[in-house]
Amino acid sequence: MELRRRLNLLSVAIAATPLVLAACTADSKPDGRRAGEQAASLELLVTPADQARDVPISAEVGTAVKGGRVTAVRITDDKGNQVQAEPREDASAWVPSKPLQPRRTYTAEVTATTDAGKTVTQKTTFTTMPKSTKPAITSTLYFSNGRTYGTAMPVTVAFDPPVAKEARADVQRRLFVKTDPPQPGAWSWVADGSQVYYRAPDFWRPGTTISVRSALQGLPIGKGRVGDADRTATSKVGHQVALEIDNRTKQMSVLRDGKVIRKIPVSLGKSSTPTSSGKMVIMEKHEYTTFDTRGEPDGGYVVDVQDAQRLTWGGEFIHGAPWSVGDQGSRNVSHGCTNISASAANWLMGVTQVGDLVTVKGTEVTLDAGNGWTAWNVGWDEFVKGSALPVPAGLRPAPAQAPPPGTVVGASPAPVPSGTGG
């Protein structure tokens, strides 16, 4: 597969096949002149620096070339074993397919070649640091292997504690997404650094394969912490399914591939515990679960529910609620959830996928950023502002247009926390 040049690897969507780690070209010519003399205009810098010590196990082999291009890379450990690596799309570095080992010595040989066929080879040998004693930032990749997801599924990585603003670029640089067929996207951080999302400007095309690597193990994150693990997953995108919930009509429209296949009466959150309006994504599906809100504001109850689908971290679900069937379609009585009949909830579980878009409109409060996977709750122009790295040229928002004379620009009200379950 050719590298997609227009993508900026800093927002990481690797599309290259693993580089063939070929043997390096000899550094001398038959006439006795050194390669560097024959190719005086070819400059190659390789990192880490030769004889560097205490190198993080997340290290990459960086290459900076002037007057040519990298044509061969070979990385070996101190036992002579070859280390597999893949190039970043801009060829700025070769990323080992697995984290390096602590207290080990590695050698990288890199060859660059001019268009005229002249070559130069550089070698660097470096030693990794001992196993870190710094506390790890726990990362969670909300993208599992071998699943089928909805077309609105954002690749989500969550962090505990949140990542400080000054460390986000380093973390983002180690998050990789590849799509087949290619569908470029970008990363965007929630303001507090607790989550980062990856999505494309438009929904994923059904049938797309998405491969993800969260390569954070041993990565220095700020001054006092390191990344906890290296995780990978590959899954597919299924049919386009969307749910549209209108508080005015108290109806849910279920759409598959753009066509309404059923309308379901609903009862949303009552005025003291309103349902959030906004664009959410189905995060979890449970055939059976228990809501326990003891100790929470406006809570204090324990109830068993069936066929529950989570929409927010704050506890908003779509679920079967036989106790409110008489109110569904006419009156809001829940604690923030979307109540539907038991039969409708059972049917809906067989239609939806984790990653399907759910749009709620017309309620008293708006969805808070980060309360769930809220990557679609803003437009693309706003979404890419959350990237800690430059956004690829083809994905940047259009230049802002000056508002017409007399336009009054105001701010939206602050979101109000949603209810929890019910």
Structural class: mainly beta
- Uncertain residue ranges: 1-39, 405-420
Give the domain tally: 3
Q: What's the total helix number?
A: 4
Strand order across the largest sheet: 13-14-11-9-17-16
The overall pLDDT average reads 87
CATH C-level of the largest domain: Mainly Beta
CATH architectural category of the largest domain:
Beta Barrel
The biggest sheet amounts to: 6 strands, mixed
Instruction: Tell me the strand percentage band.
Output: 35-45%
Instruction: Give the terminus-to-terminus CA distance.
Output: 49 Å
Q: What is the number of strand segments?
A: 28
Looking at the structure, the CATH topology of the largest domain is: L,D-transpeptidase catalytic domain-like
How would you sum up the global shape? elongated
Description:
Keywords: Acyltransferase, Cell shape, Cell wall biogenesis/degradation, Peptidoglycan synthesis, Signal, Transferase. The active site is at residues 319, 337. Residues 395-422 are annotated as: Disordered. The chain is mainly beta and 422 residues long. It has 3 domains: 9-128, Immunoglobulin-like, CATH 2.60.40; 136-237, Immunoglobulin-like (Sandwich); 241-363, L,D-transpeptidase catalytic domain-like (Beta Barrel). The protein contains 4 helices and 28 strands. The protein has helices at residues 35-38, 168-172, 342-349, 380-383, and strands at residues 43-47, 52-55, 61-66, 69-77, 85-87, 93-96, 105-113, 119-128, 136-142, 148-149, 155-160, 175-180, 186-189, 195-199, 209-215, 220-221, 225-227, 230-237, 241-246, 251-256, 259-265, 276-281, 284-292, 302-310, 317-320, 338-340, 357-361, 365-366. It has a 6-stranded mixed beta sheet. A 6-stranded mixed beta sheet has the order 21-20-19-27-22-28, with no helix packed on it. Strands 1-3-6-5 form a 4-stranded antiparallel beta sheet, with no helix packed on it. It starts with 34 loop residues before the first helix and ends in a 39-residue tail after the last helix. 42% of the residues are buried. Mean pLDDT is 87; it is low at 1-39 and 405-420.
